[in-house]
Amino acid sequence: MKKNLQTAFSTRQYMLSKDFEIYYYKESRFSGVKSHTHDYYEFYFFLEGDISMQIGGLLCPLKPGDVLLIPPHTMHHAVSRQPEQPYRRFVFWISQDYLRQLCALSPSYGYVFEQAQENGRFLFHYDNVAFNALQGKIFRLIEEIHSDRFGKEAQTTLCVSDLILHLNRTIYEMDHPATQPGEQSLYENLIQYIEGHLEEELTLDRLAGVFYVSKYHIAHVFKEHLGLSVHQYITKKRLAMCRDAILGNTGISKAYLLYGFKDYSSFFRAFRKEYGISPREYKELYTVVSKGAQS
Questions:
Q1: How big is the CA angle at 284 (ends 279 and 285), to the nearest 5 degrees?
Q2: Could you say which of 69, 81, 246, 248 has the lowest number of CB atoms within 10 Å?
């Protein structure tokens, strides 16, 4: 059973909810909206099209993987040089009151909003790997909103918090690159290195060579912190990235190669063991309708 998570485009620029709203727009051609402002924050996740965003006096040409954060009362509008091209994006609105509630729980929720509101920094770019992970969180939020499962409201709130914290964490880490090995714990550096090299050959011998420690010590560190072997951890991370890529409409045959699996059979077995269903069954259950479903 496939689920259509797309939203029919609307020119409405005010919130119906008091807290947040999220939309997945997929149009066959550009539909413009005149320059406007609103009293909430707007995240704009760009997927496809020939689009620039005019924000105040700044014109931002966009490429896939770009994330814009437009603060309240900031004049903006999208423009296109080739309006006949397909146009896809996510739009996520969050009220000022809801953001204040989150920041009261932790100031970690506010970093990216401060960058936009106080520093006039509106544009942030994710590489393919990071953007696939971000899309996975967006799709899970949209799917939860469209579901009719027990605990829907509570899970939706968790998904929103997770998405906003993820945005803050990833952008903060872009701005503050990890320090050199030895200045952080070995475990933290191992985790960061693995997550940054999932598409490459990762073995205990390679990790030992990178960090100048014995492979037995690395194995012990992982068991102590996670209760997993290094191989189990790498496999779980690769599977999670493949799952997010599939949610982001990446083909299954491309996804497993993109994140370090050497052949489909080993990927298939690992995926089925981890998630209980095959990659294709997973795609049919959870992925946004394919291109042919556009209406």
A1: 95
A2: 81
Place of tokens 């045959």: 253
pLDDT digits (tens, 9 = 90+) for 60-108: 999 999 999 999 999 999 999 888 888 989 999 999 999 999 999 999 9
Query: Among residues 182, 162, 163, 166, which one has the least CA distance to residue 174?
Result: 166
Look over the chain and give the mean of its residue pLDDT values, rounded to a whole number: 86
The 10s digit of each residue's pLDDT in 186-206 is 888 888 889 888 888 899 999
Please list, residue by residue across 207-239, b when 16 or more beta carbons sit within 10 angstroms of its beta carbon and e when fewer do.
bbeebeeebeebbebbeeeeeeebeebbbebbb
Sheet strand arrangement including 76-80: 58-61, 51-55, 76-80
The tokens 């309708």 sit on which residue? 289
Residues contacting 96, CB < 8 A, separation 6+: 39, 40, 41, 72
Edge-to-edge strand list for the sheet holding 20-27: 20-27, 87-95, 40-48, 66-70, 123-125
The rounded Cα 295 to chain-centroid distance in angstroms is 26
The residues pairing with 26 across neighbouring beta strands, listed in sequence order, are 88
Asked whether the CA dihedral 225, 226, 227, 229 is positive or negative, the reply is negative
